[in-house]
Structures are given as C-alpha cells and as structure tokens.
Amino acid sequence: MILVVSSWGLAAPLARRMHRDGEEVLLYMPDPYPRAQRMYDGLCPQAQTWAEAMDAIRTPGSVVFFDFTGNGAMADHLALSYPVWGDSRLADEIENDRGEFMRICASCGIRIPKTIMFHPTRGTHTLMTGDGPFWSIRGHVKEAVAIARTLHGKWMVKPYSGSKGMTHKADTIDGLCDHLQDMPHHPGGDGPFILQQCIDGPEVATEVWWSHGEPIPCTANGTIETKRFIPGDMGPNTGSETSLLWPYGAVEPRLFRETMGCGAFRAWMRGPVFNGIRYAPFNGPMDFNTIISREDHLPYTIEPTPRPGWSSYIALAEFLEDGQLGTVIRAAAHGHLSGLPTRAPYGYCVKLSVPPYPVSGEFDTAARLGTFYDQLMSLCRGVEIEGPTESPHVWLQDARMTNGVLEVAGVDGSVADIGGAGRTVEEARDSAHALFDQLVVANKQGRTIDGADRAIRDLGLLQSWGYETPDTP
Fold it and tell me: What would be the CATH architecture of the domain defined by 202-344+455-464?
C-alpha cells in the first residue's frame, strides 16, 4: 500500500497514475474543502478520515508519501513505524522560517543575495551592521522603510514562510517603501518578512533527494518554470504555469556542488540544528532555487523548497520510465533508491485551468472571505472535461466523476497538467501542447504560446557559462 497524503490534492494525479500502474494506492486529503467538493471521486481510491488512512497502512509493506509540508509532526510519528517520504518537522520548519534557513545557507558559505530578515521579536540588531550578506533585524515596517531608504537597486519583499501572497518585486526604492507601508493592510502582512536584493539572470531550481542526511546518487534534476499566469511573464504569480525538468543522471552538477553540495551544508543535513533544536538527519527532496548572475555567472540561492515541487513533479514523472513511479517512491521511502530511471532527457508540463483561476489565496485563507471564495469557485464547478482524458499524459487534478461524467470539481480551477517527454525541449513541449489542444473544456486557459521559450533561451545561457545541461557534449 502507498498512502498518498495530499492536503490540497496536488499529488492526486500521481496517486491516480500509480493506481493505474497496478499499485495498491490510497489518497487522503486532510483539508476538508477538496473533500467537500468530491475532488477525485471516481478517479482514485480515497480515505475520508485519518483513521481510515491509518487502518489502510496496516498492510505489510506500506509506505507513506506526503506531497507538501504542514503535516511534519504526523510524518515523524508515522516514520517510527513506516517508511515515510516528503515531509517532516524539519521540513515544516524550513518552509515556515525561510529567514533562518537563508542564515544557515550563508553560514555554510553558500552564495545568497543580500538578504534582510525583519522579525518583531527575534532579530539580533536594529540596524544593518557588518558586510552581510545576511542581516537579522528586530522590527517591522517602520524599521524596514528606514533601512530601505539606504538601499540601492531592485529588491524583493518576500514572506517569511512559503506562501506566495506577500511576494512583491519593486523596481524603485520609492516603490519598495510604498509597498512596505501598505503591507499591514493585507492578510498576513503583520508578520515577519524578508527583503532580498534582486539578481539579474536566469532562475533555475536544482533538486536532490536525500536519505537520512546523505544525497541519493543520480537523483539530481534541474527545473525551469514559468510562474506568471499571462504570456510574456505578466499577471499574478501562480507558482507554476509550465515546468521543464531534466535529470542529470550520474553527473553531480555544478549547481549542486556550489549550493547544497558543499561540505558545510552536507554536514548540516547530517545533524541539522534549526532555531536551536536538533532534528534527525534530513530525509526527503530538497530543492534550491537559484539565480545565475549575468554579471559573474555564479549561482545565488534565493529560497529553499524542502518538499516535492508542484507542478514540477508532473514533469519529473514524465521523464521517468513507464510504470516506475510507484517503485521510485517506495524505494525513496525505504532508503534504497539508487537513482531515477529515465526514458527521456526532458520532461515538460503545461497547466490547463479554467476561470476564475487564478483566484488569490487570500480569499481562501482569510476567514471573512471563505464564503466568497466558494461562490467564485462555483462558477467552474461541473464544467465537463472531454477529449483524450485517459491519456497517460493528462494529469487530472481539480476533477471528479459525477454519474459517469468527468467534470471540474471546483476546488481551485487548476484542472490538469498536460505532460510530454522528449529528446529535446521542443519535442517534449510540442507533444504536451498538441494534447492540450485536443482537450475540450469550456474557457480552458494555459501558457501554450510561450510556455517553453524561457527554458530554451536559459538552457543555452547555462551551457555557455559552464553549467551542465542534457545538451552538454
């Protein structure tokens, strides 16, 4: 049995794929909202309660796969009795305290942009002292505005935790100060936050899977995403509209060696201490998002992702050998994985969504707007999904079966990721986009115009600057 714990249903497509491959799989979504909309009814076996999920994994040989942080205490408890993959209390802490993690990166000698953490009670200084690149400031908006007036260049305001809701890029110092002063009027705007200097260059994520504090050989993979909703990189940041992934195979890539692969960080992963608390060695996927500077061609880590990445894991599943997804997850959970079995140099996916997606997460998380969010999502609930929906490259997400009809469940309007794999980026992209065009969903939307353009351009830059890509001779 593979129990897939997916709070918002992000890993539901992976659960369905493993089930269709013949694995015994059970999907459990702890968040009540997807379950209330009958998300994934008729598409994959589901548990409706934690008790039902726990009864299912009493089957000998069961493993548990968490698709996101937030259930770390439960993951660590289950890890006492079962192989667990994807979450832990340490992963939760890293996700929710990115300021502390950036401090750890800097202390390990990993390059980071100039980064200033503001916390009302935990900062160690009230003014910037020393050469950085990391500063911890006790204070909030007032102190941040005073410091911002002394800065130069472009800066990002970033949330302390993994939420996207407060991220803002300011092109001028005046614009930065205006945004800081407006922050308290937004949900979550009264909490700690980070200022980070913008580095000009391509953005690339490097993921490596870890087993009990050691990197698993042959699991390194790279990702280039488009995160803005509208072609031309305009509109809201949805996290991932398209993802291009490539495995490095037996190569230990430069982007790993110069970031989480350095000796000091490897030592930290074997005996991690976070905010004064010692944790078990890190066990799970770790992704470092970096900017490769156009000025010095060096990587600067801008944030971690101590969990599976979405929708990039759909693209990762695309380049795996057919039928191997469940085997890979089982081996990772048991600590026996020796690499990723791949069938192609590139995996790609493009999100297919319907209005009112993308609805701001603020509507969902702010209690006073919860009813309004549900009313908005009712606009797409019940929209039929037709075409080649049984294709193994259609990774359904916000979907359900009702009286034999496949339709949108109306959880967030992110209907599916459409995938493809190929020997070239263009081949992977074209196969996914051709399938996207065949699907019939009223008012469907997706970045098929320019979804892989940035990846093609940036891969050429990386190769010319001495970084490994699948096309490196």
Answer: 2-Layer Sandwich (3.30)
